[in-house]
Amino acid sequence: MPRFGSRDEYLANIVPPSVAATAGLRRRAFLKGTFAAGAAIGFPSLLAGCGDEGGTVDGGGGGGGTVTWGTNESGTTFAQQHQAEAKDFESKNDGIKVKINAVEHNTFQENINNYLQGSPDDVFTWFAGYRMRFFAERGLIGDVSDVWPLEGIPDSFKEASTGNDGKQYFVPQSYYPWAVFHRKSVFQKNGYEQPKTLDEMTALAKQMQKDGLVPFAFADKDGWPAMGTFDVLNMRINGFDYHINLMAGEEAWDSAEVKGVFDMWRSLLPYHQSDPLGRTWQEAAQALQKRQAGMYLLGTFMNEQFPENERGDIDFFTFPEIDPAIGAGAIDAPIDGNCMSARPKNEEGAKTFLKYLASPDALAAAVKATKLPFISAHENADQSVYTDLQKKSAELVGQAENIAQFLDRDTRPDFASTVIIPAFQEFIKNPDDIDGLTKSIEEQKQSIFAG
Amino acid sequence: MSVTSPTPAGRVRKDTTEGGASARRRRRRTTGLDRAVVAVMVGVPTALVILLVWLPAFGSVLLGFARWEGIGGLDTIQWIGLENYRNIFTIYPPFYPALQNNLIWLLFIFFVPTLLGIFLAVLLDRELRGGRLYQTAFFLPVVLSLALTGFIWQLLYSRDQGLVNAIAGTEIDWYGNPDVNLWAILVATGWKHVGYVMLLYLAGLKAVDPSLREAAAMDGSGEVSTFFRIILPVMAPINIIVLVVTFIDSLRAFDIVWVVNKGRNGLELIAALVTQNVVGEASRIGFGSALATIMLLISSLFVAVYLKVVMGGRK
Hints:
The complex is a heterodimer.
Chain A: H1 9-14, H2 17-41, H3 44-48, E1 65-71, H4 77-92, E2 96-102, H5 105-110, H6 112-117, E3 123-127, H7 130-137, H8 155-160, E4 171-175, E5 178-183, H9 184-190, H10 198-210, E6 214-217, H11 225-237, H12 240-247, H13 256-268, H14 281-289, E7 293-299, E8 314-317, E9 330-332, E10 335-340, H15 347-357, H16 360-370, H17 388-399, E11 402-404, H18 407-410, H19 413-429, H20 434-449
Parallel strand pairs in A: 1-2, 1-3, 6-7, 9-11
Antiparallel strand pairs in A: 3-10, 4-10, 5-7, 5-8
Helix pairs in contact in A: 4-16, 11-12, 11-13, 19-20
Chain B: H1 8-17, H2 20-63, E1 66-67, E2 78-79, H3 83-90, H4 95-125, H5 131-143, H6 146-157, H7 163-168, H8 181-207, H9 210-218, H10 223-234, H11 236-251, H12 255-261, H13 270-278, H14 285-314
Antiparallel strand pairs in B: 1-2
């Protein structure tokens, strides 16, 4: 999923963003996807079985030797950051070399099964949450508990790095929160205030409609953006623990709680941009940028759709509380970071490198090379390099009581993509049949989680 | 240069007159080599077909009865009988829309772009002025890569920024509205298919013996009746090729809907559902294989009909 669209920045400058979204990303993803389909049908385990035997030979004591690093960015700004980090690490750790194996983002993700079962790199980029636990449980990710505790990494991040067996399998590096974005200038001009409660938000939405604005920009052509809306409503209405249990398949999707979430969503749909299923998030973000829409619930990567000189005008607030007993302390803030493969060729070097990637030095190296900071998972990272938006993001996440990883990272990926995406799209088309919809989701959930 | 003509009769006579033994040996040696060549020529393709077509196909059918994430060895496969099929037919909402869409796809592609392509070929065959130009223009979409096709039509169809809505002054959600998006995609697909059929048919028409037309004209047959009574029957082999191309294209239709929205929300097609379930992280290999098996069965139906028509024609 093109959560980071910076590879499209050039394209986005010359053609509508919807096109940018389809052109570069999808084609490659599609081709590689087709290839993967062929491989999957041809018994991947047989193919994969050849790769991972007998590999713990080289990589000597003292963490010397070479560490291989599989990354999910190729030819992008993020790829340049990876290179800078690797170089900086080499200069600080005499004797350890880092060899980067860069793969395009979507390809990396779609081929992760075959990649991990083949001969994966010692260290590889991945996500926190269920998506990491899933592979950890199947023995495809290495235990890195002895890298922890990591100084400067908050406990909430440690929790997100922990597998079902209580051990850590992940080292966080950066994150980005989901929030409700708006333009400062639009709020100022119309005298709007950031809402703190649902009532205030509904009143604001009605006022915006009177002022000729679409209250919420909305897009779900790619299927995942609407998950952000569901997540935040679920966490506001039923709380963070319920979200985690629901995602883990332990709660029923046709429960009164989930129906309540859809009910609330239905009551808010009239304030959303119409026809979202044909619109990409890039186009929706541009509606906000063009002052056609007043607010937009998305991740901070949304700012890419604003020209550089207008990014100072972006502000955000966290989705207001719905139930005072639950509050507004839980947010979606997907964490990106790195894992170690189950049988690394250079375990010691890999762990040293993992520690480095979570340190403020990695951020400094990335900023030095690209002038584009990410929000470091490390509390003591140099915040002076951050943009105002990033400083505020760090603050928001720092204050959050609970951090969710986003629906498709918190549950089984096959459930998210083959059941939830079509179901949410169906709901957006026909929001009145909540009973039928939730029953269908639950039936399919049981067939998938039964495995 | 030898004067004798290499007729079998000549060779036989030569063999019997001079040194029959050596000739027999020569003949035997050639036969051995022939056998080897035949064995290789039959064996290698057979091995390839079995290895690359039948084995995976058989594997897919087998996996259709299993639950497997594609992780770990074959021992992690759980055999669950017909459960995948039961789930597909009872609780999998995209399945019936996909069947219906595939059928609509087939009928539309046959009745609109295929017939239009044939019509264009007939027109172009009449050597109009600028015929070459039209020919190139109609054929151009065929050579464009699919990524480019998706790109071009996205420019036209985007709801907020697209050309179609801008010109017509409408706000139709071409790709997002499930009532219209299939038709929008069919137009895009047809745009490619017309040129393909046109070129195939044009090549056939050029090969038709002109004396047939002359004879028909002499006998006082009009343009239309000449085409339907003379040209069309003569073109039987091309007609079958065009039909088969249309069937195959409709059944494997997948790429363009995948580019647009991964085959969801009104654009469900069986092939896209197979891909959704099999490709990617933590795949539902068994479920996807069951879908693929259903697709295989449907295709076999068409293949059987096709073979019957072709074989029947041969007799």
